[in-house]
Amino acid sequence: MKDYQVNRELMNHTKNSEVFDMYCLSAYYSFETFIGKKIGEKFHGNSFEVTDEIFKISHSLVFKEAANCMHTIKAVSAVAL
């Protein structure tokens, strides 16, 4: 995924210090986790689509976005019952 990766270089191309990163969870962004290592081994990868640095920066909305999804899922589940 290196050619399509969201990383510091790509973010710098925006020339906007207020640009946000939004990324859907579940996301694999690090080979330092058990699952990340397994994915790297299985697919012979050396990069994920988003870097650990970008995933965790202050301009990342990943976890806020996940919280919104959680409420949507709960609402849909309540209606389905």
From TrEMBL:
InterPro entries: Asp/Orn_carbamoylTrfase_sf, Asp_carbamoyltransf_Asp/Orn-bd. Keywords: Transferase. Pfam families: OTCace. One of its GO terms (biological process) is amino acid metabolic process. GO terms for molecular function: amino acid binding; carboxyl- or carbamoyltransferase activity. Residues 1-77 form the Aspartate/ornithine carbamoyltransferase Asp/Orn-binding domain. This is Aspartate/ornithine carbamoyltransferase Asp/Orn-binding domain-containing protein. It comes from Eggerthia catenaformis OT 569 = DSM 20559.
